[in-house]
Amino acid sequence: MHRPEEMIDDVAPESEGKLQDVKMGPGEPISLDCDEDEEVTIITKDKKKFVVKKKYTVISKFLTTVLTEDPTNEVTLDTVHSDVFKYVVDYMNHHKGVEPEVVPRPLRYTQMEKVCADKWDAQFVDQFTEYKQVHPLMNVASYLHMDTLMYLAAAKIASFFKDKPLVELRDAYKNQDDEKEQKEQKEEKAKPKRAKKAKAKKAKKAKTSSGS
Q: Is the pLDDT of residue 178 over 70?
């Protein structure tokens, strides 16, 4: 296992399908072919809708690719929950399509204000006070190919464990895996109950229709 301060170097976006070759650099605005105030609707796994200016989404290579190929200006993220995506929207709205500087690697300080060029980024990521809070954000940023957000989240995670025994890092990962397994087991147990409820609702609706 690597040292916590090296974690940011080990994080890399996982590709799904072919992405547009979007060139991004710190402080450089990248633009899609869109009007100044054109908006897009992004729907999360739990059916929550987020409206964002299209030009702000370009710091996500994934969204850029989808919106370039689909003229409807609507994107559905089947694997992303709104509880996490709302922070992604905050990040996009702040940076307004301009790629910020990447957090230096390896991590030298645990205080985010000392490693973030943008003070807002430091305040943004400091709202996550536990590893298990910020880890989902890092995963979503990786999925969306938002490299600077992914590295920012990774830096925050590294700050929790920098200069601490590696056993704490192992325990954190283990606890997260245990929680994930418990959640999956709970969902599996709930499936028959949901199916039964849906069947009863359908039968009631059919009975109402036949009686009218």
A: no
Other Cβ atoms closer than 10 A to 40: 22
Phi, psi of 182 (to 5 degrees): -65, -40
Which has the closest alpha carbon to 104: 91, 114, 119? Answer: 114
- What tokens were used for 22? 């979007």
For residue 53, the domain's CATH number is 3.30.710.10
Report pLDDT digits (tens) over 116-169.
Answer: 999 999 999 999 998 889 999 999 999 999 999 999 999 999 888 876 666 665
Q: Over 90: is that where the pLDDT of 60 sits?
A: yes
| Whether residue 200 sits in one domain with residue 102 | no
- Find the domain containing 11 and state its range: 4-163
Calculate the CA 174 to chain-centre distance.
21
Q: Which two tokens stand for residue 57?
A: 């989404």
Predicted local confidence at residue 131, as pLDDT: 85
pLDDT for res 72: 85
Strands (E), the chain: 39-43, 49-53, 74-76
**Cα–Cα distance between 106 and 5 in angstroms, integer?**
6
Q: Enumerate residues 6+ apart whose C-beta is below 8 A from 65.
A: 17, 18, 19, 20, 22
